[in-house]
Structure formats: structure tokens, C-alpha cells
Amino acid sequence: MAKFLYVYHGSGKMPTDAAERQAAMDAWSGWYGKLGSAVVDGGNPVGMSKTVLPGGKVENNGGSNPTAGYTIIEANDIDDAVEKAKDCPILTDPGFSVEIAPIIEMG
Prior knowledge:
It is built from two helices and six strands. The protein has helices at residues 18-35, 78-85; strands spanning 2-9, 39-45, 51-52, 58-59, 67-75, 97-102.
């Protein structure tokens, strides 16, 4: 089985209402439960990023497509990883997407 990186993109706000936060956590737990042992690293959300550009210029925001978090999974191939991502709860918000990339083992 190959490993794949899911990078979640978008800029949304974490729910402030306790019931909404719990519903979001339940949706993620349900999706991870569906993926089962394919989840290698459940990942985490991330904060606002800084981007270092050639010449040392630094951008203090996530740019046009900010990273929101990540997960690492195992799948048969990239098409299998894509299918697994289609049920990701982050996709219920039209401002978000999941980028999928194979992890290349270097050793």
C-alpha cells in the first residue's frame, strides 16, 4: 500500500457554538471510522501560514489557497486515495478542497 498526503485547503472559521463543534468532530470521527486502518496519521488543522518566496520575501498569509490541515492515508493508488477523499467532511463547505499527493519514500 502506498501513502498519500491529504492537504486541506480553504479558509473558514472553526465553529464557535459547542453543538456545531461537536457535530464537526462527529463528522470527522465518522469519516475516519469509515477509512479505518487506511488512516496512517489523522493529522491536524493548521494555523495561518507564512510563505517564503525566492529572494527571501515573506508573505504573511496563506495566499489564494491557504492550507487548513492535513491527513496521511494508505491506498492502493492515487485513484483509490481520491475515492476515499470524496467523503471528507471538509467538502461540505464549498470554500474548501482536498489536494492529494503520493508520498515518495526516500530510503
